[in-house]
Amino acid sequence: MKYTEKEVVDILKEYRETVWVNGATANELNNFLEEKGLIKEEFEVGEWYKGQRTYGWLICVETVRRNSLTGYGVCTTDNEWEDVFDGSVNDYNWTLATDKEVEDALIKEAEKLIEKGVVKCLHECTDIYPTDSIVYFNWDGDCLRVTVKGGCCCIFDKGNWATIIEEPKEIVVNGITYVEK
Predict the structure, then answer these.
(1) φ and ψ at residue 24, rounded to 5 degrees
(2) How many whole angstroms separate alpha carbon 22 and alpha carbon 15?
(3) Rounded Cα distance, 48 and 126, in Å
(4) pTM for the full model?
(5) What residue ranges do the domains of the chain occupy?
(6) What is the DSSP letter of 152?
(7) Among the listed residues 52, 154, 49, 153, the one whose alpha carbon sits nearest the alpha carbon of residue 105
(8) Mind giving me the DSSP string for 17-75?
(9) Rounded to the nearest 10 degrees, what angle do helices 5-18 and 26-35 cross at?
(10) Which residues, in sequence order, are CB contacts of 141 under 8 Å at separation 6+?
(11) What pLDDT does 38 receive?
(12) Which of 41, 106, 123, 166 has its CA at a distance of 20 to 30 angstroms from the CA of residue 147?
């Protein structure tokens, strides 16, 4: 929304007469300006942002509060996934992440998950085994799919990772094979 110079002056007069006269705080000023459409949140829920402080982060924003945001994503410094991120909007020099940056980070996490065991698809498609040959990954902005010979598996969807199916362990005692349950 664009305002003329006169409209901005009128809005500031209204602020001075209604809010400021009562000893407004900085938050009240921000609220007033947001209501008038003069400022808006810098972050959009559902978008991926990258930031750097002591550690680098690639985060999908779930909530934005005045000075902080929450979400999930990966610490790019040590390549560890975080289900919960809660950080400052000011301290990380946040910028919008590219689709390629998000896709690359999710593929790295998916590969780590696949190495751990049988992956149970989030949408009941095809389970993936560590021995399966991965044909390709497909990231559509919400869901990361892994295509293998014989099917495809949704391994990540809106912050949720597929689970690992614990394979029963076989124990051989005196030549007899037992399956641990």
Answers:
(1) -65, 150
(2) 10
(3) 28
(4) 0.68
(5) 5-35, 48-96, 99-165
(6) E
(7) 49
(8) HHTGGG---HHHHHHHHHHTTS---S--TT-EEEEESSSEEEEEEEEE-SSEEEEEEEE
(9) 140
(10) 99
(11) 66
(12) 166
Cα(82)–Cα(60) distance, integer angstroms: 11
Residues 51, 92: Cα–Cα separation, whole Å: 5
Show the tokens assigned to 115: 């190495």
In the chain, what percentage of residues exceed pLDDT 70?
82
Q: Give yes or no for residue 181 having a pLDDT over 90.
A: no
Structure tokens at 166: 């614990």
pLDDT tens column, 70-119 = 999 999 888 899 999 998 887 788 899 999 999 999 999 888 888 877 78
C-alpha distance across the termini of the chain, in Å: 63
Please compute Rg for the chain using Cα positions. 24
Cross-strand pairs, 68: 88
Cα 127 from Cα 121, distance rounded (Å): 5
Under the banding of pLDDT at 50, 70 and 90, the label for residue 59 is: very high
What is the distance between the alpha carbons of residues 158 and 142, in angstroms, rounded to a whole number? 5
For β-strands 80-88 and 68-75, DSSP reports them as antiparallel
The sheet with strand 80-88 has its strands ordered as 80-88, 68-75, 56-64, 48-52, 95-96
Q: What one-letter code names the amino acid at 164? A: I
